[in-house]
Each structure stands twice: as structure tokens, then as C-alpha cells.
Design a protein that fits this description.
This protein is an alpha+beta fold and about 80 residues long. It is built from 3 helices and 3 strands; from the N terminus they run βαβαβα. It has helices spanning about 15-30, 40-45, 60-75, and strands at about 10-15, 35, 55-60. It has a 3-stranded antiparallel sheet.
Length: about 80
């Protein structure tokens, strides 16, 4: 019997669809897999600015992903 993957997805970023897609791309550059939550709602039902989209990563990648997110936020805010 195939063993089930019992890892959890955890949130590392929440923002507009374009920001979430950018963060997802930055994570992919670091070979960290991620997924978007609520992205389809934005594309299908509501305007892109109406819903915040969450970027999720595997729990084991959380620390590395947060480094990427912190760097993105730092550049975005100019600090």
C-alpha cells in the first residue's frame, strides 16, 4: 500500500494575485514548490484587487520560503 504524504501546507505570504504570483515565482527560483489558495476565485468571480491570495508551501520548506518572502517584502518597502 502506498504511504500517504502527511506533510502540511503552511502560509508564507498573502497579498494581491500579482504579488502572490511574483512570490511563487521567486520561490520557484529557489526550487521551493508552492501553490496559491483562492487564486481561482480571483480569476473567475471577483476583480483581482478584491481578494487576497495566499501562497502556501510544504511545512518542511517554511524557513527557506520565509527568507525569500522577507527579502521580497524588504525590497518592496524599500527598507
Amino acid at each position: 500500500m502506498k504511504e500517504r504524504d502527511k506533510t502540511k501546507l503552511v502560509e508564507v505570504y498573502k497579498g494581491s494575485l500579482w504579488e502572490a504570483e511574483l512570490v511563487k515565482s521567486l520561490l520557484a527560483n529557489e526550487e521551493i514548490e508552492s501553490t496559491l489558495k483562492d487564486g481561482m476565485v480571483v480569476n473567475v468571480v471577483l476583480p483581482a484587487s478584491a481578494v487576497e491570495v495566499t501562497v502556501l508551501v510544504n511545512e518542511k520548506d517554511f524557513e527557506g520560503a520565509m527568507e525569500v518572502v522577507r527579502e521580497y517584502v524588504k525590497r518592496k518597502t524599500g527598507e
